[in-house]
Structures are given as C-alpha cells and as structure tokens.
Amino acid sequence: MTAVASTLPTGQTFETAIAEGRRAYELDRKHVFHSWSAQAKINPMTIVAAEGSYVWDGEGNRLLDFSSQMVNTNIGHQHPKVVAAIAEQAATLCTIAPPHVNAARSEAARLIAERTPGDLNRVFFTNGGADAVEHAVRMARLHTGRYKVLSRYRSYHGGTDTAINLTGDPRRWPNDYGTSGAVHFDGPFLYRSAFHATNEQQECQRALEHLDRLIALEGPATIAAIILESVPGTAGIMVPPAGYLAGVREICDKYGIVYIADEVMAGFGRTGQWFAINHFDVTPDLITFAKGVNSGYVPLGGVAISDAIAATFADRPYPGGSTYSGHPLATAAAVATINAMEDEQIVQNAARIGSEVLGPGLRELATRHPSVGEVRGLGVFWAIELVSDPVTREPLAPYGGTSPAMNEVVAACKTHGLLPFVNFNRIHAVPPCTVTDDEVREGLAILDTALSVADRHVVR
C-alpha cells in the first residue's frame, strides 16, 4: 500500500486524517457493535477518504477498491453529480412522510420502472435489500394466499428474519428455526455440481428437473414464490446456464407461483445490464433491488411490482410500510445515480470491462496459477474460486469458514494495495462499474502476486 499525494481527496493532510482515523478506531472498538462478527476477534480497517475506485485507510495508504465496499458503490466513490444532488435535496426538502408525494421519489420510481423488464411498473421503496425481500415475500403470499417460499442453497437474501431464513449459506444456520416457510433447493453450479453433470446443458436440465420434483413433493398449492438471485453474488457469482431462468419462469407459470428476482447485488449495471435478469430474456413478477440503485450513498432499496400483483392491492390495503419509504435524500441520490449512469454510459463500461479486460485478465491468471480452480462472472462481477487441489477441487478454505492460507492471500492483496471482497475460499473481483482499463490492470497485477501466495498451499 502506498500513499500517493501530500493531501487526501478531502483536502486534509495525511497527518490530520491519520490522527482522526486513530481516534475513530479507538471509539469504534469501545462503542460500535459490528455485524456478522465475534466482537473481540476483529481488527476493522479504518477508511478516512474515498474517491473513484480508491479508498484511503487509517494510515493514509491508498487501496484500489475491488470490493466496491459491499458490492454497492457501482458509480465509484464520491461521484460529484450524486454528492451535489444530495446536497441540493437537503437544502430543498430533507425529509417528508411517505404518505405525501415528493418529487425525488416520483422521479426515482419512473426511472426504475423504465428500466425493469416487462410490466413491472410500480415501485415500493424500502431502506435496503433485506427489507425489500421481506416485502416482496409478503406481497407474494398475499397475492397467492400461500405461505411457502423456495430459494436455492448458495444464496444470500439479507439479514432480517424472513430474508435470512431464505438465505442458503451458513449465516442462516444460527437464525433458522424451521418456522419461516422457507424451503431450499440446489441450483445450477457446474463446478461443484449436485447433479453429477458434465456440461452446462446437463446441469441446467437436471437442476430444473430437481426443482420441479421438489415442488411436486412439497405441494404446488402450498408455494407462494420462488426467489432467486439472477446471478448469485456473495454465494459465489455463479452465472446460471442458458435456459435455466427461463425454465424457472415456466415452472412458476405452470403452478401459479410468483417469481421474485433478487437483484439487490446484481442490479444497476453490475453485470453489464441494468438488471442481470435482462441477460436471460426473462420477466419476473417482482424484482428486489438496493445497493447500486444509488451506489449506497444513502440507504435505499425497493420492490418493482408487476401490474398483476399491484392489482391485488388496488382495493385492498397493502399491510406494510416504513417511516423512510422513498426518503427524499435517498431517492434524489437514486435519480442522480441513474442519470449519471445513463449519461456517462457506465452500464456499457461495465459490460466492456468484463468482456475485454477483467474477464480475459482473470482467465489468463487462471492458466498460470494452480490455486485457481475457476473464474466466472459477467461485467464487473467476477469470482476467483481458490482450491488446494485442482483435481479434487478441495477449497482453499472450508465452506462457511476461512483458513490460514486464505488469510495469507487476503493479506497479500492489502499489502500490495488492493481491497478485495472475500468469502470462504473465493476472492470476488467486483470493482465499480466506472473502473478504468488501467485500474483493472493494476488490480490484476496485484492479484497475480497474491495468487502466488495461494499457489504455495496447492498439493503438488
């Protein structure tokens, strides 16, 4: 990690920022309770500044942000148009109760509805992705009069009660009491196939047969919805094979099941389309979104709703809401973000980066590093699957945990100036959609060095 200027983007000197960062760290460790963590065992990084694709840590070191924080700063850090829009909205109307119309919310809803597939013309705003999932499930249950919801293993849908029970990764385990109505199934993932498939076509066919059989055994008339991340994110960025999501749509239509597309992480340019599901020519009944809708500058999420489901609540009150639904600051940030993405062709940049720079670069690294079992992704949404044995595909860290080997790899990334997104045995290469070719090449060079550390742990 290197300090590259005498001042930070904020105009502060490094000395001032470091002093403030150390004070912030001291207060954090005394008073802040961190999510998903054993409080006594963490040493959180302090961030004192950010700009574009970079952040500066508490010692003034600059790191290339290949995590996009929580895979949400899609337009990069401190985009001037969005920062200005937030300030302008704050000067005009900081907050207003959700029963009242406000211009920022109305315009944000229009811009989102224009970009959703099919007839998803109404938008219900939430504070984030987890509560968007909660409300989408509630809508589906009320619309169908059924209770069960199906979701895949190797998925993440949020940390609230229903969302965490729908989640198909180990974070669910301590929160799962078997009473949520969630039923899990195996989705397609050829590299670690649950179906003994040898190619993508087999994997797709067998995964759909498995889902259809599960529905028959659970009782089609008991199932309100199937929720799927269009491209699963935290669980591993497994791009579904051709025909899979279309097959899920057909199954939902066959049994009268609501199809919920979770686009919280994959939406708003991340895969090189406005919504990841657009890659697969499928229209769901509901879309959940958050994160990239305004790059996380102000908390915001929501549900895009089809006309059929919206009609359920035309004369029947929808039993749900939030004090901050469609908050003016958050929706003003969304308007500015979507307009900036359109004007600056940021979605197109993400697609080009993925196909011409990041994807080819990662595949080239895979040919030289035996620790890389597979790379996969779309746009600026990629996973590097690390293994200790390329033949058996033994992961470099266990499912649901970490390992000394993975800790060494992550440390090497940070030491050389890269902030990665890491989950179990994977490094996710998920820079902002605004990332440049040179920034990607910088990141690939650091990953090359870090993967050499992983290679030392490969069985020879």
What would you say this structure looks like, in words?
The protein has 460 residues and is an alpha/beta fold. It is built from 13 helices and 16 strands. It has a seven-stranded mixed sheet with strand order 4-10-9-8-7-5-6, with helices on both faces. β12 and β13 form a beta hairpin. α4 packs across α10. The longest helix has 23 residues, at 346-368. The radius of gyration is 22 Å and the shape is globular.
Q: Keywords, please?
A:
single chain; 460 residues; alpha/beta; seven-stranded mixed sheet; five-stranded antiparallel sheet
What's a quick, concise take on this entry?
With 460 residues, the protein is an alpha/beta fold.
Indicate the topology.
Blueprint: H1 14-31, E1 47-51, E2 54-57, E3 62-65, H2 68-71, H3 80-92, H4 103-115, E4 120-126, H5 129-144, E5 148-152, H6 161-166, E6 182-185, H7 200-218, E7 223-229, H8 244-255, E8 258-262, E9 286-289, E10 301-306, H9 307-312, H10 328-343, H11 346-368, E11 372-378, E12 381-389, E13 394-395, H12 404-415, E14 418-419, E15 421-423, E16 426-429, H13 437-455
Parallel strand pairs: 3-14, 5-6, 5-7, 7-8, 8-9
Antiparallel strand pairs: 1-2, 2-3, 4-10, 9-10, 11-12, 12-13, 12-16, 15-16
Helix pairs in contact: 3-10, 4-10, 7-8, 11-13, 12-13
* Gross morphology: globular
Beta-strand level of the residues, as a percent range?
A: 15-25%
Largest sheet: 7 strands, mixed
How far the N terminus sits from the C terminus, by CA atoms, comes to 32 Å
Helix content: 25-40%
Which ranges are low-confidence, i.e. pLDDT below 50, for 5 or more consecutive residues?
none
Order of helices and strands: HEEEHHHEHEHEHEHEEEHHHEEEHEEEH
Cα-based radius of gyration, to the nearest Å: 22 Å
- Strands ordered across the widest β-sheet: 4-10-9-8-7-5-6
